[in-house]
Structures are given as C-alpha cells and as structure tokens.
C-alpha cells in the first residue's frame, strides 16, 4: 500500500492506519510505502523523511506486534518526491543518500 504521511513525528494518517489494520486482520502480507513528501517538518529534510519512516514503523509495531523489528523494516518502503516538493523542501541526491543509509 502507498499511504499518505501526516507528519514527520506522526507517520501515516489515521485513514491509512485503518487500512493497515484491516489488512492485518485479514492476514494479508503487505508492503507499506509511506509517501514521504509534502508534509510539515522541522530540521533538515533528510532527517524529516527518516523520522516519518520511524514513526510509520512505530505504527506498524502496534498493528503487527508479533513481528520483529527486522521483519517490519522489511515490509517498509519509502516513496519520496524527487526534486522540489509541493511544500518547499527539495529531495536532492544528498538527501537520497542520507535516506538510503537509513534503509
């Protein structure tokens, strides 16, 4: 699922959490792709993307409590907007390298 990020410290929005909860209740194997773009943030953009990813992982831990951190991270993909985001920050090659280091 490709899902909307609400903010760097929140993760995906409440509707997206409901979608993931439904998938988990049905026993579906899913990949969670938060759209790490167009959200409010503080600090540098690369760190904000990583914070949003970590917040999403926290949500996933609540939805799939029986999975290990490694299993959950294996379910996580990130969907950035390359170049200038609609809200102003720019995903540069340096930012992409920073996020790749997180992965």
From TrEMBL:
Say which domain of life the source belongs to: Bacteria
Coiled coil feature spans: none
Gene3D superfamilies listed in its UniProt record? Glycosidases
**PANTHER family xrefs:** BIFUNCTIONAL CHITINASE/LYSOZYME-RELATED (PTHR42976), GH18 DOMAIN-CONTAINING PROTEIN-RELATED (PTHR42976:SF1)
Q: Know the name of this protein? A: CAZy families CBM16|GH18 protein
């Amino acid at each position: 699922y490709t899902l909307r990020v609400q903010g760097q410290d929140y993760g995906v929005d409440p509707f997206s959490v409901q979608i993931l909860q439904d998938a988990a209740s049905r026993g579906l194997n899913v990949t969670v792709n938060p759209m790490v773009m167009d959200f409010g943030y503080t600090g540098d953009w690369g760190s904000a993307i990583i914070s949003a990813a970590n917040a999403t992982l926290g949500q996933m831990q609540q939805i799939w409590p029986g999975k290990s951190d490694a299993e959950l991270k294996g379910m996580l993909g990130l969907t950035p907007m390359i170049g200038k985001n609609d809200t102003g920050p720019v995903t540069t090659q340096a930012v992409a390298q920073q996020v790749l280091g997180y992965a």
